[in-house]
Amino acid sequence: MSNSPTTVVVTGLGATTPLGGDVPSTWSALLAGESGVRNLDWEGVEELPVRFAAQLKVDPAESIPRPQLRRLDRNQAIALIAAREAWADAGYAPPAAKKGRKAAEEAAAAPEGATVDGDRLGVVLSSGIGGLHTALNSYDVFREKGWSRVSPFTVPMLMPNGASGHVGIEFGAMAGSHALVSACASSGEAVGYAIDMIRAGRADVVICGGTESCIHPLQMASFGAMRAMSTRNDEPERASRPYDKNRDGFVLGEGAAVMILESEEHARARGARIHAIAAGAGYSGDAYDIVLPDPSGGGQAKAMRRALTDAGLRPEEIVHVNAHATSTPAGDVPELNSIKAALGEDAAARINVTATKSMTGHLLGGAGALESVITILTLREGLVPATANLEDLDDEVDLDIVRGEPRKLPDGPLAALNNSFGFGGHNVSVAFRRAV
Amino acid sequence: MAVATEQEILDGLAAIIDEIVGIDKSEVTPEKNFIDDLDIDSLSMVEIAVAAQDQFGVEIPDDELRNLKTVKDVINFVQNLQQQG
User: Does residue A146 sit at the B interface (CB-CB below 8 Å)?
Assistant: First the structure.
C-alpha cells in the first residue's frame, strides 16, 4: 500500500491528436493501427531534411472561435480543447463565464454536483517547448513591421505555462496552477505532480496533462541537425517503427491530452465513473548527458522502481508497459533492458509492451499525458494497441512486444506503467491500476 | 486622406472589434463604453487601436488611448485628426 491513505482516481479523459479530434476517435484509430503521420505541404519543405510529421487530425479552429484563437498559441488552444473534453467526460458542467455581465447569472445556473469548489481544483499542464509558433511568427512581424505591430498577447502566448494558465482560468482552478517543463517527460511528471497534489490535500480535483505544437520549419531543422528524426521521406506513415530493425529516428507529432484526477472520496461522493486508479509515479535524473540517455539504463530503471514503490505495487502485478520507445536506434532497446532491471527478469518476461508513438508520432511534452490516457484505456478496455510498422523485429528485443493485432488483457485487477524520458535526463514512470 | 463620415468610422471600428474580440457589429454603437459595456480588456484595446490607426490613417498615442472610453470618443478623435490632417 501507498504511504498515503488517499486513493487518486481518473474520472475524465480528453485528447486531440494526429489520430483524431477526441479520445474515442484516437482510441479506435490506435486499435485499427492507423498512422497519424503525413507529408508536410509547406512552401520550401524540400529544403528540409525531414518533410513529414504527425500533425493534428482536426484543426483547433473547428471548435475555438477566431477571436479567442488569435490570442492562444496553438499548443494552448489544443490544451483547452482536450481539457474541455476531459471535464465533460468527468461529468462536470461547462464552466460559467468568469468575467463580464453574464458571469453571475451563468454561475448560478450550474446543476448541483456538477461543479467543483475552485479552491479545491488544481491544474498541472505541461508543454516541453511552449509557444514556438508565436515566438517565431512574432519575430517575423517585428522585423517586417516594427515593435508596435507585435501582438500585445505575444508574451502570454509564448510562455510554456500559458496552457496551464488558460485552463486554470477557464475552469476556475484556484488550488494552484502549475506547468512542469522537462522536455519529453513533462506531462508524465504532470500526472505525478497531480497525484501528489491530491494526496497532500492541496486539491480534491486536478486537471492534468500535456500539450505540444511545435511542427515548425525551425524545429524540423533543429531535430534534423541532431540527426534525431527519421528521414524516411518516401514512406512517412511507416517512418515511426519502434523495435524494428530499420528504425531510423523519431517522428515529430503534435497534440494535447488531459485527464481529470480526483480523490476517490470526492469521485464516489458524486457518483462519478472511474476510468482507472492513478496509483503513483516515480522519477529520476540521469545526471549523465543533456540529450543521450544513460546507456546503463540505471536512471530509467530507478524511475520505474520508484513508481512501483509509490504505487504500492509488486513487479508481478504489472502486466503491461506503454513504453517511451520513440523509434530511435539508440533508445528503444535500452528501455527494455531498464524494464527488466526494474521488474526483474521473471516479472518482465510475463508483461507485454507497446509503443504507440508508432502511430501518434512523438508529442514531446504531450507524450506522457497522451500515453497515460492510452494506458488507462488499455486497462479499462482490456485491449493493448499493437505497435505499428514492426516488420522486422530487432534481434536485441527479448520482451513481448504487441504487434500485428491488439492484444486482449486478462480480466481482474491489473496494473500498468507508462514511461516517459526527456532530454536533460528526466525519467518518469506513471503507474495505473484497473478500477475494479 | 478624405475625412470619413461618422457612419464610415463606426462601421470600420465595428468590423475591427468583430475581428479582434468577436463582438457582433450590431453591438458596437456610439454610446457603448469599451470596458463596461463591451467587456474589452486593455490588451485587446491596444490591438484595436493599432488596427484603427492602420485603417483610418491616424496616430493614436498611448496616453490618448486611455481617454478613449466610448465608441463615440474614437469616432470624434479620428474625425478631428482627419480634419486637421
Answer: no
**Under 8 Å between Cβ of A364 and A426:** no
Q: Could you say which residues of chain A have pLDDT below 70?
A: 1-4, 97-113
What CATH homologous superfamily does A8-276 map to?
Thiolase/Chalcone synthase (3.40.47.10)
Is residue A288 less than 8 Å (CB to CB) from chain B?
no
Query: In chain B, how many H helices and how many E strands?
Result: 4, 0
CATH architecture type of domain A280-434: 3-Layer(aba) Sandwich (3.40)
Helix (H, G, I), strand (E, B) or coil at A250: strand
Contact criterion met (CB < 8 Å) for A66 and B46: no
Interface residue B19 vs chain A (CB under 8 A):
yes
Q: Given this model, what pLDDT does residue A45 score? A: 94
Instruction: Report helix angle B6-21 to B71-84, nearest 10.
Output: 130
Domain ranges in chain A? 8-276, 280-434
Cα angle A315, A318, A324 (rounded to 5 degrees) comes to 105
Active-site residues of B, by number, are 41
Q: What is the pLDDT of residue A1?
A: 46
- Mean pLDDT throughout B57-81? 91
Identify the pLDDT of residue A102: 54
A3 contact partners, CB below 8 Å, separation of at least 6: none
- What is the value of ipTM here, to two decimals? 0.83
Selected for mutation to probe chain B from A69, A98, A147, A153 (highest B CB count within 10 Å) is A153
Say whether A184 is catalytic.
Answer: yes
Classify the C-alpha dihedral A107-A112-A115-A118 as positive or negative.
positive
Which residues in chain A are contacts of B21 at CB distance < 8 A?
Answer: 67
Q: Do B47 and A152 touch (CB under 8 A)?
A: yes
**Pairing label, strands A255-263, A205-212:** antiparallel
**CATH top-level class for B6-84?**
mainly alpha
Contacts B46 to A, Cβ<8 Å: 152
pLDDT, averaged across chain A: 95
- Tell the residue number behind the cell numbers 488550488, with chain if given: A175
Cα–Cα–Cα angle for B1, B4, B6, rounded to 5 degrees: 160
Q: What is the pLDDT of residues A65-110, one digit of tens each?
A: 988 999 999 999 999 999 999 999 999 999 876 554 555 566 566 6
Q: Are A224 and A384 in contact (CB under 8 A)?
A: no
A61: contact with B, CB 8 A cutoff: no
**Which residue out of B17, B20, B27 would a mutagenesis test of the A interface target, given it has the greatest number of A Cβ atoms within 10 Å?**
B20
The answer to whether the CB atoms of A67 and B22 lie below 8 A apart is yes
A–B: how many Cβ contacts below 8 A? 21
| Burial bucket for residue B56 (CB in 10 Å: 0-12, 13-18, 19+) | buried
